Predict the structure of 8-oxo-dGTP diphosphatase.
Amino acid sequence: MMKRIHVAAGIIINSEQQVLISRRLDHQHQGGKWEFPGGKVEANETPEQALIRELQEEVNIQVSSARLFDSISFDYPDKQVLLDFMISTDFSGEAQGLEGQEVRWVAKADLPNYTFPDANRPIVDKLLAD
Ligand SMILES: Nc1nc2c([nH]c(=O)n2[C@H]2C[C@H](O)[C@@H](COP(=O)(O)OP(=O)(O)OP(=O)(O)O)O2)c(=O)[nH]1
Ligand SMILES: [Mg+2]
């Protein structure tokens, strides 16, 4: 049985109501797709702590606080994930792809024009309804 990977992903919303997305590198799982930046929750970390660490490492964003927006458990053919999507408007820093990935601020209404991993479908729908 595969071990389910616990991931914290950030829905970061700026004062113009745009959402930060980044493009997964080709060699990564679900490579080439857009994502809400984030990564694995390590042992002894809360999802919020993991989010703060990952956003600093990946996109140069300092998150001050975040709350849980939704949790999704999803089975890819090759990987099982538990995604905690954390939402925040409380952050500082200029977004930058620190791992060489593309990052973009996009209007909520434009999110359907980007291809996300299949697990994200309900999240994009919920953000649009928000
Ligand atoms: N960060 C993020 N990951 C997502 C989203 N949707 C989704 O299915 N995932 C999946 C893809 C990956 O299997 C996993 C996130 O892992 P990760 O960002 O730590 O990246 P990774 O496993 O490729 O490798 P690494 O960082 O340990 O090198 O969650 C999303 O919106 N954001
Ligand atoms: Mg990551």
Remarks:
- The chain has two helices and seven strands.
- The chain has one domain: 5-129.
- Residues 38-39, 58 surround magnesium ion (ligand 2) (CB under 6 Å).
- The mean pLDDT is 97.
